């Protein structure tokens, strides 16, 4: 299935049973909620998907099961976050075998590669897969920035098609558009500045709180696309306290707790992560409960 790098693509959380096995029953409930809300793609095994804790066979199972669940309605992407070029190529090949439509790809893990090494890493994978690639540019969390100068070289490969723009600098949207036009599609990757990024011309949003609030997230995108900026702004202002749960170290626990409140997830995380406790838990619960009390009636927006 071809990938249009646009719209809302949830960075899906990985669901676990109490015994730490993959919980495909709850996973399917969440995927159905995303599809019913009108998302435009599914991204597996990212930061929210607890990628660093997943075994190779679990990643493969997630991909295979998700492809069956979506039944061709939307493309399914799997994240590549590996320590070696060899492992990244292997992961890309397995994703293709398992039916993924595309790849989201981080720079090398652990080793802080130079610009030249980073470019060669992406190029090596691009040469060894036919799948389209979205480069995940998140120097805040992963300490390596893919600059526009580096993209000049990377875009010589036709299957490097998009960037998940997570630098936190919204002016990069304009810089990328000015430099590359539509050659490099932009998926904003930071929930708290997604509204601004979409208004400035980002093509879509790889979202986090969408895991718990798919309808509201899709509504913001659709309203902006329709030019109804004020309506989208109203929803975004309501959403902001929740969106801020995505930009802290405990984002996985926060969003999984929100999924519990909206009935499409559980709190189970894979150790060393643990569910929220104490003051942090009380604070997040208050944010979620207060937001649910004032949840917007999307029917009035007639999207």
How would you sum up this structure, described in words?
The protein has 303 residues and is of the alpha/beta class. It has one domain: TIM Barrel (Alpha-Beta Barrel). Helix content is 45%, strand content 12%. It is built from 12 helices and 8 strands. The chain has helices spanning 24-37, 56-70, 85-97, 115-127, 139-142, 148-154, 171-180, 194-199, 214-225, 229-243, 251-261, 278-293; strands spanning 7-10, 42-44, 76-80, 102-105, 133-137, 160-165, 185-188, 204-207. Strands 1-8-7-6-5-4-3-2 form an 8-stranded parallel β-sheet. Helix 11 (251-261) crosses helix 12.
Summarize the structure.
This protein has 303 residues and is of the alpha/beta class. It has twelve helices and eight strands. Strands 1-8-7-6-5-4-3-2 form an eight-stranded parallel sheet.
Task: List its salient traits.
303 residues, alpha/beta, TIM Barrel, eight-stranded parallel beta sheet, 12 helices, 8 strands, 45% helix, Dihydrodipicolinate synthase family protein, Aldolase_TIM, DapA-like, lyase
């Amino acid at each position: 299935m071809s990938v249009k790098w646009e719209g809302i693509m949830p960075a899906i959380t990985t669901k676990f049973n109490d015994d730490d096995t993959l919980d495909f029953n709850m996973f399917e409930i969440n995927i159905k909620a995303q599809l019913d809300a009108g998302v435009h793609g599914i991204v597996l095994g990212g930061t929210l998907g607890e990628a660093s804790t997943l075994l190779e066979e679990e990643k493969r199972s997630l991909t295979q099961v998700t492809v069956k669940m979506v039944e061709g309605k939307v493309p399914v992407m799997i994240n590549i976050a590996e320590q070696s070029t060899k492992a990244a190529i292997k992961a890309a090949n397995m994703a293709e075998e398992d039916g993924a439509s595309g790849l989201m790809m981080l720079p090398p893990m652990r080793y802080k590669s130079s610009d030249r090494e980073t470019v060669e890493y992406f190029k090596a994978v691009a040469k060894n897969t036919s799948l389209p690639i979205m480069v995940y540019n998140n120097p805040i969390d992963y300490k390596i920035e893919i600059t526009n100068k580096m993209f000049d070289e990377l875009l010589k490969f036709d299957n490097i098609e998009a960037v998940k723009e997570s630098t936190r600098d919204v002016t990069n949207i304009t810089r990328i558009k000015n430099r590359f036009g539509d050659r490099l599609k932009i998926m904003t990757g930071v929930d708290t500045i997604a509204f601004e990024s979409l208004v400035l011309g980002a093509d879509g949003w790889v979202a986090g709180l969408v895991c718990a609030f798919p309808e509201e997230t899709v509504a913001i995108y659709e309203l902006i696309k329709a030019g109804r900026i004020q309506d989208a702004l109203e929803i975004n202002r309501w959403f902001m306290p929740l969106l801020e749960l995505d930009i802290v170290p405990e984002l996985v626990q926060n969003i999984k707790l929100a999924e519990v409140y909206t009935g499409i997830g559980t709190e189970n995380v894979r150790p060393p992560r643990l569910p929220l406790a104490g003051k942090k838990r009380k604070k997040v619960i208050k944010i979620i409960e207060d937001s649910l009390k004032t949840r917007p009636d999307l029917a009035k927006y007639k999207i």
